[in-house]
UniProtKB/TrEMBL annotation:
<dbReference type="InterPro" id="IPR022293">
    <property type="entry name" value="Integrating-conj_element"/>
</dbReference>
<keyword id="KW-0732">Signal</keyword>
<protein>
    <submittedName>
        <fullName>Integrating conjugative element protein, PFL_4693 family</fullName>
    </submittedName>
</protein>
<feature type="signal peptide">
    <location>
        <begin position="1"/>
        <end position="18"/>
    </location>
</feature>
Length: 263
């Protein structure tokens, strides 16, 4: 009799204890789920909120506040690990699944890239002009090895092609520029120098170069130079009313040829 009562008491205690553990586990699980949901909502809210600084950044990239919020979420996920530092437009474009939105991002990217190229070309014009004014034909640094290399590069050049154009000449000059550049070949023997009339601004030259499709890299490499007129129009007998004109200068003999036949 006492054994039966004791067995019932132990069984009851074990059942009650097991139920309590299960109940606590359910409560803990529920609490964790609630905490996770709360945390997720806070993270989501932080992603959706756009600070004044971020609004300014979005405008600089030609993006809306909604775009910027989407960009933050993208970079907080795997893409941020795969491509840290990826620019906002590219990040949005490569992760977009909607064709219309992807096309919109591509168009924004092209506008930004065109503006970048235009600004870089305009600055390169000013930089080359400043270099000519300050240094003339002197090397930038006083270093024997560098000077020897500079002289070797200069000696490799045999011809300069001079293209004189008005910044308003776009379509026909785009074709002409392409033909003249192709005629210079891919080596270092010939360089194409483009000259604009007096009064042309760096912004106009940069805009022309961008519209014509000049790669900023070939300007930086000095395969092509973009120049203000510093007496070249008079020296080569160029009339503004008869632009465009082309002259080929033999750097070894000094001979000058007029090679362009008017359309």
């Amino acid at each position: 009799m006492w054994k039966s009562i004791l067995w019932l008491a132990v069984t009851s205690t074990l059942v009650t204890s097991a139920w309590g553990v299960e109940s606590n586990a359910v409560q803990t699980s529920g609490t964790q789920a609630a905490t996770s949901t709360f945390t997720d909502s806070r993270v989501q809210g932080a992603m959706d909120r756009i600070s004044e600084e971020e609004k300014s950044q979005a405008r600089q990239w030609m993006l809306s506040e909604e775009d910027w919020s989407k960009y933050k979420k993208i970079m907080a996920g795997p893409r941020g690990i795969w491509s840290p530092g990826l620019d906002p437009i590219t990040a949005l474009g490569v992760m977009e699944t909607d064709p219309a939105e992807r096309r919109r991002y591509a168009e924004i990217w092209m506008r930004m890239e065109a503006k970048r190229a235009e600004l870089e070309l305009a600055f390169e014009v000013e930089r080359m002009s400043a270099s000519q004014q300050v240094l003339g034909n002197r090397p930038v640094v006083d270093n024997d090895k560098w000077v020897q290399q500079w002289n070797a590069d200069q000696n490799r050049r045999t011809h300069d092609v001079m293209l004189f154009v008005d910044p308003d000449c776009v379509d026909s000059c785009r074709r002409l520029f392409g033909e003249v550049l192709a005629s210079t070949g891919t080596g270092e023997e010939t360089r194409l120098n483009v000259y604009f009339p007096g009064g042309t601004s760096a912004e106009e030259i940069g805009g022309w170069a961008k519209t014509v499709g000049i790669d900023p890299d070939i300007v930086k490499a000095r395969k092509v130079t973009l120049n203000f007129d510093r007496g070249e129009y008079a020296r080569y007998d160029i009339s503004q009313s008869e632009l465009p004109e082309v002259r080929v200068v033999n750097l070894k003999t000094g001979d000058v040829q007029a090679t362009f036949k008017r359309w």
